[in-house]
């Protein structure tokens, strides 16, 4: 390039808008504030004309920033005043807020909406507000929430200034464009039903009445009782003001003409079903009297979710909640309802206002159409004349108060055209009132200003012009206004003057009326994934904007150079080709994304349909099981009746005809008895009789000893009466203050007791035992199936569930719940017969499951190093557990008492199978029992059975425990296998458990049976002795939060005297669990995230230092008898606790 050419290029660059735009993009993209400030200073000092291309580029700096720059740069531009107006519009009429919404820049939307000078009601050239350009549903929800906050704040401020008569502030508020758009001075008070004008007319305040009328107060607006302001006026001065205002409005509107029907659009929440609840949707009320809704504004050209014609629709307010209302659609032989809800009652009133007038308009049009159809062969001309006739008839009864100045009462907005000023409530005095200052679907009719000229290209600022997936529906017709207000009551227009309903009909379809939308929507289990994808979508949008604007601006720069430059021409062609390729690439990516999205939504819909089918099948199976159970019970009852008859006939001494009456039956002959005897013999052979010996015991308790072993098992050296007293002392209900401790008999028992006392095990437990929680269970209700359905086949321990699924206990405290029935171990130690000791040990092992009934909520997962201690002076035992591993989760526990030591590990493997999820314990549990007589100490071991939650799909989850539990006495070789039967269709098999105690010689000594949720019985094998109760579950408290037992309610009690003795790792000090117990569910979720993140940070720190975590109170060892690995307690915890040496443990919470 020649020197002359280079000089020309440099000269042109100084004034080139495209080059300046490139420099701006570089600064914005890199977040270079200093360089950006320098560029703006140079422009300012160069004194470019305001209309020059360079000045326009600087003026639209914020438009560029919201598309490509981080939030910090946008904040810098606004705070430093680098742009004169945050609401400035570009060539397409878009403000920076429009572009931020379109590009789903939620952080920037939040920032701009927080500015006092922002106006989110400005329309672009397509008659769209920023909220209508929202790129996704989350951005739309954000706009809706921020608007609601502004409306609430402004409404409160208006009311405050009306009360204080601050006319200056009121004038400022009522002339603010955003406030005028979103608030209506003619709204009615929700309590009194009056407008502000009514209120001050009643107060006889001429000054305020004049002010209100001059700022848009409507003298024709009726209150909920149907009265005009002038009807309530007392003084002649106030009446004069109102009459003059009415005349002025008539004069102003003489030349006005009535235009199209009311239209409206915006976000509302629509009820889907009990699983989905309310979901945000985009609604459009068009000028044909149709109300349609879509998933988001972007879907209006793709898929309409539902549409109704308001011709025969009804509208009903919800008297219980002001933000809710219903649309009732009466079709041919059917009635369907749309349950709708807005964010705020002011927004509800805005929708109700529009819909009422649309219903009335559609009803009148339909009525006229039917009349004119008989007189015309052309349907289209008939409709046209009907509309003309309708407008004409309305004008003959109304005053036109359309105002073309800034003080006009009606303002057409992008959300809706203005509508008839006669409120729906004018005709329905019994209906719910409109808000005090309600939002009104309106906007000024005059133009806000001429559109600014474009820069160099047609649309340089909106990079999405040709790249949006779905353009918005044109709403030109919604710009028109119906500006007629009735000078008399509209009551005559309706058949029912006091009815809350205005009639309508169903035109097209509503898939949600049958809960179909819930199947086509993204399920609860997928929402988090799609939310994460939306973050990437926003980032991709920014990158796309960068590339598009960079190419476009560079192309403009090349085009601005002299045409004789061969280099410039070649470069320009190259950039043009790149731009075309990129546009084609972008279009193909958009098509692919749309196709993938549709495919995914279709698959989700199919999955949802399968889920419903599975739910129906599961319900059908449960119904059949219940019917089979009923039949089985009837068969069982019949069998008992037949046995009773056989027994009665056998006892009869008469050989002749014998009469036996059984529950009102007819006399039975001897021949008939012989036939029945054969049936009874057959029934006797059935195996169910053996099972019934325990499970029928609850029906006949007369032959059952309560908690007393058979006499032959009791030592002859000790009287039976004394032994019964000893047993009775132990079988007291949990929490009973009279429950004592068994006397210590052996040296080992006394030595262990001395250790417990010496180490201060019960220090801090002087306070009483808590038996109830203070809160009621009012957690947010969430569908368990909705959360778990995406986790089928996964390990439950690795699932993340909402905190509302938790109960206020941890898994460590769930282990401690094994201690509820330790009196069984104390009792076992009193027997000389090793087989009878095993009976009570087995009962203890089975009793651990009684507390699982109705405990569906998930305990908190313990943190690594978390500990929990629990001691009971009244029971003479102490318990301690530590979380020794996080992956896999393992808790090592030990409980100590003078007569026994109980220890093991809580390690589980869990999996979700769809219809149920199972929790299978892996660890072995050990019991060292020190009997009062004979053997000094004996070792028992067992593994726990599988716990399962069934009935998830049908929404009625139930806990079941099933499998075989083999308990072995390694010292005497006695053993028992307890069979926990899985829950089946037989009602009496639910919770069933039974087993046989076999001694070391293989002889069956005792049989055990009953239900693990209520009672267990024992019986000496082969004897005719009656059965005896081994264990009975403690009664469950009523209305206990989380369905906890009385014992479980005591575990997390923050006893004041105890807190000083606890290490900072104790579960009682965990903040998220404490918040959950106190009913602070939002705090619990926040705290849960905090402690988990702290745990992750500690893990990363250990990994960086290459350190391996070691538990503080347990070490991994090999058991000398079983040869299995187990966690050995180092016996240091209670010693350090007694000497207050627990301060060095890490603060994991």
TrEMBL record:
Q: Name the InterPro entries on file.
A: Ankyrin_rpt (IPR002110), Ankyrin_rpt-contain_sf (IPR036770), OSBP_sf (IPR037239), Oxysterol-bd (IPR000648), Oxysterol-bd_CS (IPR018494), PH-like_dom_sf (IPR011993), PH_domain (IPR001849)
Pfam family membership, one? PH
GO molecular function terms here?
A: sterol binding
Entry coiled-coil feature ranges: 607-641
Q: Where is the composition biased (Polar residues)?
A: 392-404
The Gene Ontology CC terms held by the record are: cytosol; nuclear envelope; perinuclear endoplasmic reticulum; plasma membrane
Comp. bias (Basic and acidic residues): 437-447, 714-723, 1072-1096
Q: Where is this region: Disordered?
A: 373-404, 419-460, 688-723, 1072-1104
Keywords, A to Z?
ANK repeat, Coiled coil, Lipid transport, Lipid-binding, Phosphoprotein, Repeat, Transport
Cited PROSITE patterns? ANK_REP_REGION (PS50297), ANK_REPEAT (PS50088), OSBP (PS01013), PH_DOMAIN (PS50003)
One GO biological process this protein is involved in is: maintenance of cell polarity
Q: From which domain of life does this come?
A: Eukaryota
In this chain, composition skew of type Acidic residues spans: 688-701
- Residue span(s) of domain PH: 261-360
Stretches forming ANK repeats: 92-114, 192-224
Q: What does the similarity note say?
A: Belongs to the OSBP family.
Official protein name in the record: Oxysterol-binding protein family member
Its organism's taxonomic lineage begins at: Eukaryota, Fungi, Dikarya, Ascomycota, Saccharomycotina
């Amino acid at each position: 390039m020649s020197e002359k050419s280079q000089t020309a290029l440099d000269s042109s660059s100084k004034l080139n808008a495209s080059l300046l735009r490139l420099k701006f993009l570089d600064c914005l993209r890199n977040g270079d504030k200093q360089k950006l400030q320098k560029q703006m200073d140079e422009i300012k000092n160069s004194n470019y004309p305001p209309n020059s291309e360079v000045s326009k580029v600087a003026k639209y700096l914020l438009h560029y920033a919201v598309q490509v720059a981080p939030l910090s740069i946008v904040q810098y531009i606004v705070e430093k005043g680098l742009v004169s107006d945050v609401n400035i519009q570009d060539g397409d009429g878009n403000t920076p807020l429009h572009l931020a919404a379109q590009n789903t820049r939620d952080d920037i939307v939040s920032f701009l909406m927080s500015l006092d000078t922002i106006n989110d009601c400005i329309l672009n050239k397509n008659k769209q507000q920023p909220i209508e350009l929202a790129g996704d549903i989350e951005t739309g929800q954000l706009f809706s929430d921020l608007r609601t906050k502004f409306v609430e704040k402004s409404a409160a401020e208006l009311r405050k200034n009306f009360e204080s008569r601050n006319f200056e502030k009121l004038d400022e508020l009522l002339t603010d464009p955003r406030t005028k758009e979103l608030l209506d001075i003619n709204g009615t008070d929700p309590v009194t039903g009056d407008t502000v004008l009514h209120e001050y007319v009643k107060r006889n305040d001429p000054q305020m009445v004049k002010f209100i009328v001059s700022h848009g107060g409507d003298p024709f607006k009726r209150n909920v009782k149907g009265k005009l302001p002038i009807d309530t006026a007392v003084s002649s001065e106030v009446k004069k003001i109102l009459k003059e205002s009415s005349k002025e409005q008539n004069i102003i509107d003489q030349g006005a003409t009535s235009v199209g029907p009311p239209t409206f659009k915006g976000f509302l929440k629509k009820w889907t079903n009990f699983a989905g609840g309310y979901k945000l949707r985009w609604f459009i009320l068009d000028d044909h009297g149709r109300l349609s809704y879509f998933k988001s504004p972007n879907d209006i050209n793709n898929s309409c979710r539902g549409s109704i014609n308001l011709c025969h629709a009804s509208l009903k307010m919800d008297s219980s909640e002001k933000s809710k209302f219903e649309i009732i659609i009466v079709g041919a032989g059917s009635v369907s309802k749309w349950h709708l809800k807005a964010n705020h009652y002011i927004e509800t009133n805005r929708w109700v206002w529009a819909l009422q007038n649309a219903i009335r308009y559609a009803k009148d049009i339909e009525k006229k159409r039917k009349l004119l159809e008989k007189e015309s062969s052309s349907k289209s001309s008939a409709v046209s004349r009907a509309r003309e006739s309708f407008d004409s008839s309305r004008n003959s009864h109304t005053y036109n108060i359309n105002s073309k100045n800034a003080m006009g009462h009606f303002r057409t907005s992008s959300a809706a055209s203005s509508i008839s000023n006669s409120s729906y409530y004018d005709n329905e005095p019994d209906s719910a009132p409109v808000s005090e200052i309600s939002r009104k679907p309106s906007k000024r009719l005059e133009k806000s200003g001429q559109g600014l000229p474009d820069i160099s290209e047609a649309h340089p600022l909106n990079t999405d012009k040709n790249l949006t997936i779905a353009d918005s529906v044109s709403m030109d017709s919604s710009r028109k206004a119906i500006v007629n207000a009735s000078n008399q009551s509209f009551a005559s227009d309706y058949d029912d003057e006091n009815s809350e309903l205005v009639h309508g009909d169903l035109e097209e379809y509503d898939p949600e009326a049958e809960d179909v939308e819930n199947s086509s929507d993204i399920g609860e289990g997928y929402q988090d994934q799609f939310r994460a994808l939306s973050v990437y979508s926003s980032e991709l949008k920014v990158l796309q904007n960068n590339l598009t604007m960079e190419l476009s601006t560079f192309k403009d720069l090349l085009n601005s150079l002299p045409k004789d430059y061969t280099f410039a021409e070649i470069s320009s062609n190259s950039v043009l080709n790149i731009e075309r390729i990129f546009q084609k690439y972008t279009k193909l990516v958009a098509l692919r994304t749309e196709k993938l999205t549709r495919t995914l939504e279709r698959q989700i819909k199919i999955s949802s349909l399968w889920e419903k089918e599975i739910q129906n099948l599961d319900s059908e199976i449960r119904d059949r099981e219940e019917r089979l159970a009923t039949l089985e019970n009837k068969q069982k009852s019949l069998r008992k009746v037949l046995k009773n008859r056989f027994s009665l006939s056998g006892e009869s001494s008469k050989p002749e005809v014998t009469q036996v009456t059984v529950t009102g039956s007819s006399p039975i002959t001897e021949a008939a008895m012989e036939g029945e005897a054969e049936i009874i013999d057959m029934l006797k052979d059935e195996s169910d009789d053996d099972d019934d010996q325990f499970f029928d015991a609850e029906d006949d308790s007369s032959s059952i000893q309560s908690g007393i072993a058979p006499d032959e098992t009791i030592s002859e050296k000790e009287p039976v009466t004394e032994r019964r007293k000893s047993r009775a002392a132990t079988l007291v209900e949990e929490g009973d203050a009279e429950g004592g401790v068994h006397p210590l008999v052996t040296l080992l028992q006394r030595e262990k007791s001395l250790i417990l006392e010496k180490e201060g095990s019960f220090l801090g437990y002087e306070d009483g035992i808590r038996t109830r929680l203070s809160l009621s269970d009012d957690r947010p209700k969430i569908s368990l199936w909705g959360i778990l359905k995406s986790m089928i086949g996964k390990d439950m321990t690795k699932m993340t569930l909402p905190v509302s699924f938790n109960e206020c206990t941890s898994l460590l405290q769930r282990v401690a719940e094994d201690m509820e029935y330790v009196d069984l171990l104390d009792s076992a130690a009193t027997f000389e017969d090793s087989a009878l000791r095993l009976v009570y040990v087995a009962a203890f092992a089975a009793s651990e499951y009684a507390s699982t009934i109705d405990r569906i909520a998930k305990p908190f997962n313990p943190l690594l190093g978390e500990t929990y201690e629990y001691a009971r002076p009244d029971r003479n035992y102490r318990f301690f557990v530590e979380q020794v591993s996080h992956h896999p989760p393992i808790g090592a526990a030990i409980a100590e008492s003078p007569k026994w030591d109980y220890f093991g590990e809580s390690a589980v493997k869990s999996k979700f199978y769809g219809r149920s999820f199972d929790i299978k314990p892996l660890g072995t549990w050990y019991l060292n029992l020190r009997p009062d007589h004979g053997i000094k100490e004996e070792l028992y071991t067992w593994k726990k059975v599988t716990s399962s939650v069934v009935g998830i799909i049908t929404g009625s989850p139930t806990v079941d425990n099933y499998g075989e539990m083999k308990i072995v006495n390694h010292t005497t070789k006695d053993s028992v296998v307890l069979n926990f039967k899985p829950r089946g269709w037989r009602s009496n098999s639910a919770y069933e458990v039974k087993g046989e105690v076999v001694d070391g010689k293989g002889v069956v000594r005792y049989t055990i049976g009953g239900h693990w949720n209520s009672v267990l019985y024992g019986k000496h094998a082969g004897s005719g002795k009656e059965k005896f109760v081994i264990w009975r579950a403690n009664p469950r408290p009523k209305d206990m939060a989380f369905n906890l037992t009385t014992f479980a309610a005591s575990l997390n009690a923050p006893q004041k005297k105890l807190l000083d003795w606890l290490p900072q790792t104790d579960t009682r000090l965990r903040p998220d669990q404490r918040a959950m117990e106190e009913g602070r569910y939002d705090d619990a979720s926040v705290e849960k995230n905090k402690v988990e993140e702290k745990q992750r940070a500690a893990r990363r720190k250990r990994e960086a230092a290459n350190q391996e975590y070691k538990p503080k109170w347990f070490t991994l060892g090999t058991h000398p008898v079983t040869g299995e690995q187990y966690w050995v307690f180092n016996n240091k915890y209670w010693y350090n606790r007694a000497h207050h040496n627990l301060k060095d443990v890490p603060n994991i919470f």
